[in-house]
Amino acid sequence: MTSSRTDFPAPSGSEWWRDAVIYQVYPRSFKDSNGDGMGDLGGVTEKLPYLKQLGVDAVWLSPFYLSPQHDAGYDVADYRTVDPRFGSLEDFDRMREEAHRLGLKIIVDLVPNHTSEDHEWFRAALAAGPGSPERERYMFREGTGENGELPPNNWKSLFGGRAWTRVPDGQWYLHLFDSTQPDLNWENPEVWEEFRAILRFWLDRGADGFRVDVAHGMIKADGLPDWDEQVHMVEGTDSADDAAAATHPTPGEDPEGPGKTMDTGPYFDQDGVHEIYRDWNRVLREYPGERMLVVEAWVGPAPRLARYVREDEAQQAFNFDFLVAGWHRDRMRDTIETSLRANSEVGAPCTWVLSNHDTVRHSSRYGLSSRTAYPNGIGAQDEQPHPGQGLRRARAAALVELSLPGSAYVYQGDELGLPEHTELPDAARQDPTFHRTAGAELGRDGARVPLPWSPVGEGLGFGPAPWLPQPESFHEITVDHQLGDPQSTLSLYRRALRLRHELGLGATGFAWHPLSDEDQGVLAYVLPREDGDVMVAANLGDAPATVAELSTGELLLASGQDAVVGDTLSVDSAVWLKL
Ligand code: NOJ
Q1: Which residue has the higher pLDDT, 241 or 269?
Q2: Cα–Cα distance, 40 to 73 (Å, whole number)
Q3: Could you tell me if 167 and 275 lie in one domain?
Q4: Which of 103, 104, 189, 457 has most Cβ atoms within 10 angstroms of its Cβ?
Q5: Does residue 562 carry a catalytic annotation?
């Protein structure tokens, strides 16, 4: 294993996004400023100073556009209008101005694979009928079977059930997600023109970048061939037509591992999709100020993903291999190696991400008995995460994530060690996955619960009647509690981000430490710096591990008060050392 692993020089380039820490705001659950139970842009503006003090460089906001909210805003009815639930364009301008005043960049979400059924284009397509130019903007097809009563092919929706819905005149339209999210036809130049215009609309309004939704999905294989492999079927369920489906990697107790759990099939990662990124790259270059694209592409293995961040395409791609690696030394080690290698070959920085609004929060995943558990939601009847173990590992993982070369993504609440809500009542669930699978898949609501800001105030300071109920466990871990506690997870994140900045972590080279090859379960590496190398060690093993540098180096940061005992690193702990 040692022989196949290498050291990496510091990545080239000085653009801000190369080593930025980017905080994901899920607007509906961040902060409610008008008391309607849902977070909004006013709430984001109010809390920007909190994010500045946390020490992040940029904020990515999940969609806040006009939408019927069948998929929490990833079903856009108008790409140029702010949904009144979240505010107005003026609220966006105020937020962006304040963010820029504080030195924070703003990244907005772009949803190009599909629109909402409420988008004026889709309404026009339904009204205009078969063969019309309006239908050509979407993926309408005739059915099969004697009278067209069967769908055009056997594709499944990623949210469960079939990927086709029939309209009254007999045609079918494709939706890789919910039936309220019709897929656009990216063979149509009008669609290209429209998305260039949408990019320019937000670039003109001062957006510093875009997170691209389902970035590997817009181009479908010629002829829309059947796809027999049931890639998204959940282990243990029947393979009936309406069997449960997962959003991305096949969920389960122990997915095969990084690079092997990604979306494949005739609707993902088709070569033609790269032409879109070349086109958008040119649009971004019309603007000053290092604008960027980060793609949400569940593509593996790493060299395949790296194609999205070639010099004339996107700037970043989320590293989901790292997210699904679990709390497992060898998988984390191999993911770091393959990601650094693949990205260095195309001159792009890596990204590191542990959680987002589509995954069970890592402080809960890490609390399950399997180190690589990747469930699609956790319910009251499921194994309950061990809160102590999960949080301890999450704190250690943060020190790994925030030290690696490249850019890091922090999902709102990561900095609080926030757990998943594992006891949400079914009646509260809103994720279309839950409904399309008749409850077989719990879905993502447990990771989307409104943030706890303070022990006093309605909705723990979020606002009255939060759209999802907050669990009891949130009462003791609010921002206000944690700000006053130097041992809290929030204090750990703040120290880590300050040190990261001071030491220039994120922009360093990388060298493996021999401990990463030993049997103790330690992940260790050295970040070379002119002003003294930094060593990072994390113990993912089952017993305290000897780390000689604990005696000789200077302890910069530890994941917990008991992380270091003499020259041993405790289980589920991590440290930063100056050598
Ligand atoms: C990925 C988004 O992150 C997820 O929340 C959404 O449901 C799907 N794409 C469909 O837009």
Answers
A1: 269
A2: 12
A3: no
A4: 104
A5: no
One domain, residues 81 and 212: yes
> Which atom in ligand 1 lies closest to the alpha carbon of residue 75?
11
Q: Strands, DSSP E only, in 111-221?
A: 140-141, 164-166, 172-174, 209-212
Ligand 1 contacts CB of residue 19 (under 6 A): no
pLDDT in tens, 332-364: 999 999 999 999 999 999 999 999 999 999 999
| Ligand 1 center from residue 163 Cα (angstroms) | 15
Containing structural domain, residue 484: 16-112+189-492
Nearest atom in ligand 1 to the alpha carbon of residue 356 is 3
| pLDDT of 284 higher than 60 | yes
If we measure between CA atoms, which residue out of 175, 173, 235 comes closest to residue 440?
235
Looking at residue 241, its pLDDT comes to 30
Q: What is the pLDDT of residue 248?
A: 53
User: Residue 162 and residue 197: Cα distance in Å, rounded?
Assistant: 32
382 pLDDT exceeds 70? yes
Angstrom distance (rounded) from CA 2 to CA 391: 31
208 and 167 housed in the same domain: no
Domain total in the chain:
3
Are 162 and 299 in the same domain?
no
pTM: 0.95
Distance between CA atoms of 76 and 86, rounded to whole angstroms? 13
The yes-or-no verdict on residue 5 having pLDDT over 90 is: no
Retrieve residue 209's tokens.
């970048």
For the CA of 444, the nearest atom of ligand 1: 5
CB atoms within 10 A of CB 222: 10
Choosing from 179, 358, 411, 441 the residue with most ligand 1 atoms within 8 A of its CB, the one to mutate for a pocket test is 358
Residue ID of nearest Cα to ligand 1 atom 3: 358
Q: Taking all residues of the chain, what is their mean pLDDT, rounded to a whole number?
A: 94
DSSP H helices in 287-431: 302-306, 320-324, 329-346, 362-365, 387-401
Give the integer Cα–Cα distance in Å for 409 and 411.
Answer: 6
Cβ–Cβ < 8 Å for 419, 362? no
- Choose the catalytic residue: 40, 91, 208, 213: 213
Question: Is residue 213 annotated as a catalytic residue, yes or no?
Answer: yes
